[in-house]
């Protein structure tokens, strides 16, 4: 990625905790990452690792009564966590577009999609209802709806899942956002539509120059589209770096299994991936030590303490292991995978 591009988003030490019946639980712990204009960052990790909570809390979409959010989030020079709910709402939808996992949460069943997109545009831009509707039709065409002039008057339930997701993308893009946040945008869709939607995101980055934060389970997609990747486990980013580097030589033991779950472009193909035994911890059972230690084959006493940061080129990881021991451990894990 071009280092000279200006910084768009800077997240530093983001920590999110919830008040629950069992006291406070921390779902996101000391998460830091940054994003330059036009860059695609992918956040990956098992369900429950804190990906959605991270994104929703930095956009101010958490429940302010029960959720405590600490840290610094700077977007285009403005500190998001210190902003009022109203000011944040102005940024969302105009400078930051959100595509959530379930398109129905973004759409209201009682209005046509054209009306909803036009309303979104009119909230942020002082244009007439007629001009906004015209723009809605254009947007629906840009996201690949075959007959946008007709689709604009449809209600969400009259569209297929793929079409609805495109309508949500059109809505997220309605004000040419500098940042598009896509939380598992294709999980609910079938494979062909998934590919189309991802293709669409890439084309839109090209056309509008939007930066994208993409949460997905699909490591194949990550390796294809992301400039950088962040791996989350138990509320922490356990590894991050440029995509190529993280896939070529993942540093964290959790990443080893994750990255080998896509067929390598060169070298022997693995016929089957050994799944990592055990379950990820729940937020209320996480201590200061490494959250992955209970499932790691290389755990040692030091793993009970807060893991140190190891760096290598563009990468950094939270793990006690260091080269050359780390490489030897990784080789032993990958050797256990069955070659085809
Ligand atoms: P994912 O990585 O799958 O997106 P989430 O960010 O949704 O994971 O959730 C992280 C953890 O935070 C989960 O264990 C979830 O149960 C917990 N969590 C999310 N929202 C709340 C809430 N409002 N109150 C309590 N716990 C929550
Ligand atoms: Mg999620």
Write the layout of secondary structure elements.
Elements: E1 7-20, E2 23-36, E3 40-44, H1 51-58, E4 67-75, E5 78-79, H2 85-91, E6 96-99, H3 103-106, H4 113-124, H5 129-142, H6 148-151, H7 161-172, E7 179-183, H8 191-208, E8 211-215, H9 219-225, E9 228-233, E10 236-242, H10 243-248, H11 253-259, E11 270-272, E12 309-312, E13 315-318, H12 325-336, E14 338-339
Helix pairs in contact: 4-5, 5-7
Q: Could you say which structural class the secondary elements and strand pairing correspond to?
A: alpha/beta
Query: What about the largest sheet?
Result: 8 strands, mixed
How far apart the termini lie comes to 35 Å
Beta strand count: 14
Kindly provide the radius of gyration, computed on alpha-carbon positions and rounded to a whole number of angstroms.
21 Å
The poorly predicted ranges are: 265-273
Bound ligands: adenosine-5'-diphosphate, magnesium ion
Which sequence of SSEs, written as H and E, runs from N to C? Answer: EEEHEEHEHHHHHEHEHEEHHEEEHE
Q: What is the count of helical runs?
A: 12
Helix content: 25-40%
Arrangement of strands in the largest sheet: 6-7-8-3-9-10-13-12
Proportion of residues in β-strands: 15-25%
Q: Which word captures the global form?
A: globular
- Residue-averaged pLDDT: 88
């Amino acid at each position: 990625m071009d280092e000279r591009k200006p910084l768009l988003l800077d997240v530093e030490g983001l920590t999110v905790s919830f008040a629950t019946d069992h006291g406070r639980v921390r779902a996101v712990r000391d998460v830091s990452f940054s994003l330059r204009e036009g860059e695609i960052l992918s956040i990956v990790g098992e369900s429950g690792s804190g990906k959605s909570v991270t994104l929703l809390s930095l956009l101010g979409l958490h429940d302010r009564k029960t959720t405590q959010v600490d840290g610094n989030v700077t977007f285009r020079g403005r500190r998001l966590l210190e902003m009022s709910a109203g000011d944040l709402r102005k940024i969302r939808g105009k400078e930051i577009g959100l595509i959530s996992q379930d398109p129905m949460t973004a759409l209201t069943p009682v209005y046509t999609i054209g009306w909803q997109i036009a309303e979104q545009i009119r909230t942020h831009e002082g244009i007439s209802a007629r001009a906004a509707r015209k723009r809605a039709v254009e947007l629906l065409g840009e996201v690949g709806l075959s007959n946008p002039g007709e689709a604009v008057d449809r209600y969400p339930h009259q569209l297929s899942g793929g079409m609805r997701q495109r309508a949500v993308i059109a809505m997220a893009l309605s004000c040419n956002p500098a940042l598009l946040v896509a939380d598992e945008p294709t999980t609910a869709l079938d494979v062909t539509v998934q590919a189309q939607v991802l293709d669409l995101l890439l084309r839109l980055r090209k056309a509008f120059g939007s930066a994208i934060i993409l949460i997905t389970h699909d490591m194949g997609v990550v390796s294809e589209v992301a400039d950088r990747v962040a791996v989350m486990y138990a509320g922490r980013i356990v590894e991050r770096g440029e995509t190529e580097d993280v896939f070529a030589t993942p540093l964290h033991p959790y990443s080893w299994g994750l990255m080998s779950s896509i067929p390598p472009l060169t070298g022997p193909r693995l016929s089957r991936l050994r799944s990592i035994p055990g379950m990820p911890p729940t937020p209320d059972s996480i201590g200061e030590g490494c959250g992955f230690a209970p499932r790691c084959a290389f755990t040692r006493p030091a793993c009970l303490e807060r893991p140190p940061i190891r760096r290598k080129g563009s990468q950094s990881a939270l793990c006690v292991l260091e080269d050359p021991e780390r490489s030897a451990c990784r080789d032993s894990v990958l050797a256990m995978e069955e070659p085809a």
